[in-house]
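Database export, one record per block. Field names are fixed; values are copied verbatim from the stored entry.
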Amino acid sequence: MGANVRRKPMSTSVTDRLNHACRIFADRPGQIAIALQSKKDSAIAVSHNSQLSIPSASVVKAAIACAAADHLDLKQTRSVHDLDDTFYCSILQAFDPSDQISLKALIGLMLIVSDNPSTTAILDAVGLDKVNMWLVAKGLNDTNLAVGFSDDELGVRLRANRTTAHDCLRLLRLVDEVPDYDFIKHLLANNLRNERIPKRLPDSASIAHKTGSLNGLCHDIAIIESPEAAYYLVVLADGLPEGEDFQPVIARFSAEIYDLMSA
């Protein structure tokens, strides 16, 4: 037999294809960080700019929830009348001022609709210091909580809270794997803001996720589980062009990643 036997080229690995898709997605205006990891095979993992420090916006609320679960009696209640007023819309306006709401329910409002007065109530109960101590204890060393979510701390001031895609991936793993945080994962799976990672995914998929938004900033971090695929996906984007709607961009990217993870 001759030595000129033609061999079929090896098919591109899943990781290579994921890396290509993530690199193209990240190669656009702004600061874009990605972290992706399979739940079934930890060797299938891709990251781009995962150590880049970016304002966390509301994705840090998932960490606040975990810290509260570790430090508080979540059966305790707060009167709606005693919660912070806000200039902005709040789901708490649907309640009577005399209503009593448990801390656990306030965590639900903080995560499902990202309600800021509910977040402020939880932070008042647990304290910024304990949240930051929790972050360090859990190895989220590049995430900090410098300010809360009251009206006077929103906007530019809120950019003082920082995180990385690497830390957000670790946070998702904690929510997914620590039994005491099971209720937090359940709340995140009932998020009502679904125009980003979940938008184009099949109905068979469960997506426990938390978004974050500021001017020029558009985040989503998610645990995706379905019969076809199971993985963690972190997308942090800052410095986006003024007026750009980045939500459909994330949605298309998320669908592409799902197809690759399902192959």
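Remark 1: The chain has one domain: 14-262.
Remark 2: The chain is about 35% helix and 20% strand.
End of record.
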